[in-house]
Amino acid sequence: MSTIPVIDVATLGDNYAGLGAALGHAARDIGFFCITGHDLSQPFLDQVFAQSKQFFAQDLAAKDALSIRHSPHNRGYVALGEERLDASKPGDVKAAFNIGLDLPLDHPEVLAGKPFRGANVWPDALALPEFKPVMLAYFAACHGLGMHLHRALAHDLAVAEDFFDDKLDQPLATLRLLHYPPRPEHFELGQRGAGEHTDYGNITLLATDDAGGLEVRTRSGDWISPPTIPGALICNIGDCLMRWTNDVYVSTPHRVVNPMGRERYSIAFFLDPNPDAVVDCLPSCVTVERPARYAPTTGAAYLKSRLDATYSHREKL
User: What is the value of pTM for the model shown?
Assistant: First the structure.
């Protein structure tokens, strides 16, 4: 494909076989697709973006008090330049805030100190009273949509429709708010809003404003931009699902270039497997001619390997 397909999930409803065929075609080729007809209404999306903008508009001290540097669980605020998605390039010109599956402090997995099972950190409720409930509602809605898409993908991959259900029901998912400042007059050599990378998990659901800047690399090496469709979500296959499918599905490199003269906001939901879910090549994706290319791993082990390569502060955790 030289363009990113648009798939209306409403027209297919619970026809998982038909939806799976459409998703699978995109997953095998360009690895990206846009979905319309989902249940995330425009007023709901507007509310989430409004809360995100209020968060990033806070003073640096308030945001830095929630720094991801204090968290071994990939939670909290990522300052401008702190993340480097392309390890060969300077830090990314963006800020972020990460929210995971919301667990109470007395949850057994939190008390046991399991990797990526810490409690979320939240901004001051007096300053941003609607932030937490809005973000938790959006997290739940994206999780539900992601599960729906996986039931369709299961059909395409010739496994049981519920194959992914117990592997994604308590996921290492991350809801990530992103803020890109306007492009500076001079970037460092190779620097961008987000360096070239592939995503780590199974599938990404991305909501964006109309500022543009996301670029996707086609199989021929050209860089293209997804279509701008109000209310649509831009989705892509991540590395974990590529491993599960033995490279039948492909995760696609992409990057973000800061727009000129304006800010860019986006909201990404990364659906990673449960911590103990075993990520092993599906039997339906392994043949004599195509033997398994990856050793089994777990959701937590794989996520740790990728985050440790992205954040320098994790060397001390």
Answer: 0.94
